[in-house]
Amino acid sequence: MAATDILDLPEPDRIEGAPHPREAARLIGQEAAEQGFLQAYNSGRLHSGWLLTGPPGVGKATLSYRIAAFLLAEAPAGDGLFGAPPPPTTLAIPEDHPDWHLIRAGAHPRLFVVRRGPNDKGDKLSADIRAEQVRKLKGFFHLSAADGGRRLVIVDAADDMNPTAANAILKELEEPPARTTMLLISHQPSRLLPTIRSRCRELRLAPLPPPALAGALEDLGLHSDTPDALAVLAGGSVGGAIRMIQGDAPALYAALVTLLSGLPRIDRQGALRIAEGCAGKGSEARFALTLDLIDLFLSRAAKAGLMGEPTSQGAPHEARLLARLSPHDHAARSWADLQQSLSARARHGRAVNLDPAALILDMIFRIEETARSITAPAD
Description:
Layout: H1 31-42, E1 49-53, H2 60-72, H3 98-104, E2 111-114, H4 131-143, E3 151-156, H5 163-174, E4 180-186, H6 194-198, E5 201-204, H7 210-219, H8 227-234, H9 238-246, H10 249-260, H11 268-276, H12 284-307, H13 318-325, H14 329-351, H15 356-375
Parallel strand pairs: 1-4, 1-5, 2-3, 3-4
Helix pairs in contact: 4-5, 7-8, 8-9, 10-12, 11-15, 12-14, 12-15, 14-15
């Protein structure tokens, strides 16, 4: 891995409050993806390009580093004294293996990570992966060719590439150097060039179920008293769960559900308390979290109108509330339309620095208005 050029800036591929994926003790809940890679490896037809897809925070980067360590530690053919060893059944290699030490130190000479670098001023991270980050691969391939071992490239995340960088990666995928494997991490593969997707074999990682999510959080020294609710709020994402725990999202969502339980009428004082919690200096994170939780509630309301009362809850009594507010597909469309409208409203409000409390109150009253339209008797 090339030495970072980000200096004192935070690593763009690290979730705040969690270790970097290369430091993760284990991969939890993604056995199917791990076995999918091992099947290809054991068949002797290892693809040079892999696309690891799934929601953010479900283990794509962790799996990428495990694959990298596994391939970099691969024994040269013919090393066995008694013939070929049995096919591996796991990607795990010993924790004290030299390749793991180098990877975790960010210093493996045959691993290169393409990620966002500093902006033009060097004082912040760039908003995207630029072509110069990809062009550094030429020097990496040249310098790492001497020992003839495998070489690994991780792109985290491929969604961040600007058009020029994407075309540069495509060229490498079209004519990959010998014994090179490229691992592209993507949260939204539909945003990638179709030609990039066609050059890669996909490994799809699913959201983590509550037990697996709880196990992953325990590895990080984190605990939730409401693991099932946390799994709903975080969408099965470890990264999302960390953010939810840091922001006390289960309690905030429970307060939101309690407020909305009065629909089609809203308790004005209750609405004001939630809105005022997003105002003032130091409330930026809570404001952003509240917007996300309102968006989640509307999404779940729309889904309930199509699929019925949900089997999992983000807060006590949420499932029954969703079933009452969204009893049919017409209601589902109303909630889906409102979600789209309020999402655009939130983006605009944040862009022009609207008062957070006023924006939250306006969104709550729009929810009240929609609930009244759904429950109003037909003429």
